[in-house]
Structure formats: structure tokens, C-alpha cells
Design a protein that fits this description.
97 residues; alpha+beta; two-stranded parallel ribbon; two-stranded antiparallel ribbon; 22% strand; globular
């Protein structure tokens, strides 16, 4: 996703990978947002429901979280390579304003 340009909006990535690996991935892909580390999957499991017990991994997901920490919209991929549609997420961001 891209920065929406609105004051107060922030895009971040969350991964179960350790901080050093996230830093390397951010540098490699030239991502314009930080990647946060969630090594025990707490955010994926408890907060967003993106954990696959069967596969024992976090599924790709995108969420719009408001200033109070409430999830306003969420998308969870069905497979490892699935990704949210940037346009749809930006449209949803506008609807959550």
C-alpha cells in the first residue's frame, strides 16, 4: 500500500520475522514504510485472526486500524502469496475517515 497523504495515516508492515530480517527485507524491496516484528504472532493471532494453525504460520493480511486501535477493515489472504489490492485498501481508508 502507499501513503494516503492524509495527516495521521500511517502504513506499517508486521511480520513474525526478527527485526534484522525485516530491516533487510525493507532495504531489499525499498519499502517506504517500517516493518515491525511480531515474533510470537501475538498480533496475527489475537488481534487480526491471520494465524493459520494448520500451516503454523501467519497468513498475509492488511488491516486499517483507527486511532483508538480498532480494526476498521481487514483482509486476510488464503495462501502465502496472496496480497491485498492496494486500490481497494486505499478506498476503504477513505471510507473509514
Amino acid at each position: 500500500m502507499e501513503d494516503s497523504g492524509r495527516v495521521g495515516d500511517e502504513v506499517v508492515g508486521v511480520s513474525v520475522d526478527p527485526p534484522a530480517r525485516n530491516r533487510a527485507m525493507r532495504d531489499k524491496l525499498k519499502l517506504p514504510f517500517p516493518l515491525l516484528s511480531d515474533p510470537d504472532g501475538t498480533a496475527a493471532i489475537e488481534r487480526y485472526g491471520a494465524w493459520s494453525e494448520e500451516e503454523r504460520l501467519a497468513r498475509p493480511a492488511a488491516a486499517l486500524v483507527d486511532g483508538q486501535g480498532l480494526v476498521r477493515r481487514a483482509w486476510i489472504g488464503r495462501g502465502f502469496a496472496a496480497r491485498a489490492d492496494t486500490g481497494e485498501m486505499l478506498k476503504a481508508l477513505g471510507e473509514c475517515a
